[in-house]
Design goal:
The chain is an alpha/beta fold and 253 residues long. The protein has one domain: Alpha-Beta Barrel (TIM Barrel). Strands 1-2-3-4-5-6-7 form a seven-stranded parallel sheet. The radius of gyration is 17 Å and the shape is globular.
Length: 253
Amino acid sequence: MVISMNKIIDIHSHLLPGVDDGSKDFDESIHVLNVLSEKGICDIVLTSHYIENSKYCINKKIRKELLETLQQQVKENIHLYLGNEVFTCENIISLLKKGEITTLNGSKYLLMELPLNGYLYQLPTILCELSDHGIVPIIAHPERYRFLHQHPERVRELLEFNCLLQCNVDSILGKYGKSAKKVMKWLLKNHLVSFVGTDTHSINDTIHLDKAYQKLKKLVGEQQFEELTYSNPLKVLKNEKIQSCMAYTASIE
């Protein structure tokens, strides 16, 4: 595994061609990846959506073949890794064992998406099962979930199961609305975020990245910025332990 020494590692993107609502073909993927690399984002996990019983359920074998083909066509300084953004369901462990879904770069870390406008009441059971199998859930873009807009303190329900949180950097500019921006700032203020990713689907998602990263750095400072965008993502790629945010929950306002 090659890991470049760049300033940002992105653990959330949709740039595997033709498998979800991200890039449609290899040409589009290559173009967007080149733009990201010009911004210093050269280590990128391709986290295609996996939604059971939908059109977004391409298995690991096919996605791995697509990644290998794409890796051969991009510049040498761009390093790609396989992953999924898995919509939470009750048989995640079975899907992992069958090779339908994959963790981030084969690590113990699994990127998971929750319902945007509801709440999954089976979630505690699912998270317990993942923990029993040594899987660490990374919750994608928590700032976008309505149940946290209404009750941000319910983030404890995720952290108590040792989940880690990954915010989308554009949320800090209000891309997903004022509520998402407010929740992201609140999560950052309380040191509850472990990663910030791009969630890039197309070239349009790259337009404001520089501005978003600059605003993030100004908000959290150099040290936390480096942790969110490089050192913690690097630990994921290397399958190393990441400090849980549970220690900070007592300070939530």
